[in-house]
Write a structure and sequence with these properties.
7-stranded mixed sheet, alpha/beta, Nitrilase/N-carbamoyl-D-aminoacid amidohydrolase, 20 helices, single chain
Length: about 550
């Protein structure tokens, strides 16, 4: 964004402005400084400093300043990756934090490419920064592959009116609006400093976009509040025993994990729960046959703890029964297996799945879902079958097989007719495109079962929740999120966070979940908007290059 006006400034001024942008941007999401709260309003102004830096830069300079800023944003936002690799991957801290920085550098490409595209489009065409900034960011957000697909629009989850546009265009529409506002403020400030005519037309268009989005949001919130009030309800109880799975937990707590889940479940049953939801990794009996159709419902009364069970001679079968002390239908996740027909390497005798089981009051299997979208390294190793020695080198690497289909669970257990549950496991809940596959099957409710214990007591738990919330708006369904050690949450079809647990101490939640069936524009068209932005950016780059060659 070159200009003849190039005021002198201190050499460190650009560095300071980029740091301000970086800190303000990752501060708009849950961070180590405020893990349970994000300073989301910052993102409406956070990019004004870097836009100021880029105004007199060459394309190459713009790319590197953008890359630097993006690296700051993502090292700060994903600081917990280092902790994950140390505690779960058992890597040396030098390698762990080195990988964290490399991850931040890779994601910094989003801002590097954003700055470069913006520079090229603004200088080679007549398209101003008020358009090039939001178009370029949305285009790069959707196009660059990432392990954790976080969009800038996710930061605004507490700002309900602006988030409602997600049911039409998806969360990237919020990203577009954020960068449009940043660019408008930048142009207005620049006009004031440089004593140029104020960009009133740009300001009016931006205010019009913002007003239209907010009006739409207020109307839609009212519409779905009414729909939720009128919908039939299913009383759902969420159990969070807050017992981790790794070395940090004392052996006694790990031994008592099932008893604690059962006691909390029995209490929810007394309160009238019709469906109980346990988190991923809540049931830890391994090697469950994937085709198991019947589970024991134990009639043995619950004891104080696992040691008391052993002392009183409770049989291993009764101790391992998921339903004991209660008979309410329960949804839980466990590792299931089936023989592998053709082992890929020595010891590869079973296919292992991360499976969610739905049991009725008699312990009969009425629904099963195998996790489809697996977390790289944590659950599977790319090309692991060709390098089996890697599993001996890093024992923590997962060997889970992905599910073969995406289907809602259908159950007629509550006298309400067939209830369709869009059950998804952990990481799947943040994948907008993946979750749209459930929408085609008309679910009544979304249920996400998650284990975030890998990441320790860090801001990742809140960030994961923030990335999942837009699915409720995009599909206009209630979302029940059950986590092993926090944070579990109840989110309504407007994206309103109704209940949330702490990352400490056993807790339960109860919700009269409205059974909705919705068809939204976004569920039909998917990510047409961001890919259109990508196409526009590509065309503008080509057009600008042609225009330059023609000497215009």
């Amino acid at each position: 964004m070159n200009t003849d006006f190039q005021p002198k400034r201190h050499p460190l001024a650009d560095l300071l402005l980029c740091l301000i942008c970086g800190f303000a941007t990752f501060g708009a999401f849950p961070t180590a400084l405020a893990p349970d709260y994000s300073f989301w309003p910052l993102l409406w102004i956070s990019h004004v400093p870097i836009l100021w830096v880029l105004r007199d830069k060459s394309p190459k300079q713009a790319f590197f300043w953008g890359l630097f800023t993006g690296t700051v944003i993502n090292v700060g936002g994903y600081y917990w990756i280092g902790t994950l690799l140390i505690n779960f991957g058992h890597l040396h801290w030098i390698f762990s934090y080195g990988i964290m920085v490399l991850h931040g550098l890779y994601l910094g490409l989003i801002w590097g490419l954003w700055a470069w595209i913006m520079n090229r489009v603004t200088n080679l065409t007549r398209v101003g920064v008020e358009w090039s900034a939001p178009l370029a960011m949305v285009a790069i957000e959707i196009a660059l592959p990432r392990v954790f697909p976080a969009y800038m629009g996710n930061s605004q989850f507490p700002f309900l009116p602006v988030m409602q546009i997600c049911d039409v265009l998806g969360v990237t529409a919020v990203t577009f609006l954020l960068y449009r506002v940043n660019a408008t403020i930048y142009l207005l400030l620049r006009a004031i400093v440089e004593q140029r005519p104020k960009p009133w037309k740009i300001c009016i268009v931006t205010l019009g976009m913002l007003a239209a989005c907010l009006i739409y949001g207020v109307v839609r919130i009212g519409q779905f509040d009414e729909r939720m009030n009128e919908a039939p309800k299913l009383k759902v109880g969420v159990v969070e025993a807050d017992i981790g799975i790794f070395e940090a937990e004392p052996p006694e707590r790990r031994q008592n994990h099932l008893v604690i889940h059962q006691k909390l479940s029995a209490e929810l049953e007394r309160q009238g729960a019709e469906l109980l939801v346990w988190a991923e990794s809540a049931y830890r009996r391994r090697m469950l046959p994937r085709d198991q159709k019947q589970f024991l419902v134990s009639k043995v009364p619950l004891n104080e703890n696992a040691a008391e069970d052993v002392k009183k001679g409770v049989s291993p079968a009764d101790r391992a029964a998921p339903q004991r002390g209660f008979k309410t239908p329960v949804l839980f996740v466990a590792t299931s297996i089936e023989p592998r027909k053709e082992p890929r390497f020595e010891g590869d005798n079973f296919r292992e799945f991360n499976t969610s089981f739905l049991l009725d009051a008699e312990g009969r299997l009425v629904g099963r879902y195998d996790k489809n979208y697996l977390l790289v390294f944590g659950e599977y190793m790319p090309f692991g079958e060709y390098i089996p020695w890697i599993y001996k080198l890093i024992p923590a690497l997962g060997r889970v097989d992905h599910g073969e289909k995406v289907e809602v669970m259908k159950a007629d257990l509550w006298g309400k007719g067939e209830v369709r549950l869009g059950v998804n496991v952990c990481y799947e809940g943040i994948m907008a495109g993946f979750m749209r596959q459930f929408a085609e099957q008309r679910p009544h409710l979304l249920i996400n079962q998650t284990n975030d214990d890998w990441f320790g007591r860090t801001a990742e738990r809140y960030l994961h929740l923030a990335l999942a919330i837009p699915r409720a708006i995009e599909l206009r369904l209630g979302l029940v999120r059950s986590t092993l050690t926090g944070v579990s949450a109840i989110v309504d079809a407007n994206g309103r966070l109704l209940q949330m647990t702490k990352p400490t101490d056993p807790e339960t939640m109860m919700w009269d979940a409205p059974l909705l069936q919705s068809q939204t524009v976004y569920s039909q068209i998917g990510d047409v908007f961001p890919w259109t932005c990508f196409g526009i950016c590509l065309w503008l780059l080509i057009y600008g290059r042609i225009r330059r060659k023609m000497g215009r």
